[in-house]
Task: structure prediction
Amino acid sequence: MPPARPDEPGFPADQAARASAVPALDERLTHCRACPRLVAWREQVAREGRRAYAGWDYWARPVPGFGPDDAALLVVGLAPAAHGGNRTGRMFTGDRSGDALFAALHRLGLADRAEATSRDDGLRLTGVRVTAPVHCAPPANRPTPAERDTCRPWLVRELSLLRPTLRSLVVLGGYGWQAALPAAAAAGWSVPRPRPAFAHGARTTLTADGGGRDLAVFGCYHVSQRNTFTGRLTPGMLTDVLGRAARAAGLAVP
Ligand code: SF4
Result:
């Protein structure tokens, strides 16, 4: 079979399967144009820009996960922000959500600085990687179910490639929870039935099919500006969930 074209719905499944390592997966992902509405939106946002980011050359492509390819902990969000990841080209980088997340990771010693501003700011994560079930910025931060499903092979492959070291997930928000559990099932973990419901502080365990280590999954309110500004998600709450997940993953945190 010839490789799928980037604008074909089968491109993610085809290209993800061909990636034998996380860096190759990240690179292949950046060529994807399988969701016409999201491709149009990510490029429109880049053309129009925002006054605060005048002079920025927007990334305007799919945003890959970020962090080491032997991570023990994976943080799964929703999708890049139009003027955050879609601008900088790095997940959770350059927006308020990332400000909250990286500050918490820094408090736990899993990030070497509290702020993420650009792809080349030198930020390094230890033991933790951040990703999303949808890799292009959606209008109103709302991907359609079809877009979520089209993008799923990227997350499934990322989970599969991380599987030798991955021990826990933190899923930010109900949307991510709905997307991450089926992806984990497709990557070789068994999800309890009935499927556990999302809640902040929820914890469930996915057993590894065919042996291997279980995956501890933690729910956390999304680090959206709406949640952090209103106090629905405080820095303490976020650090607490990330810390529990890091300890479950065997990472040394305070
Ligand atoms: Fe491709 Fe995912 Fe972006 Fe859709 S959302 S164009 S599947 S990377």
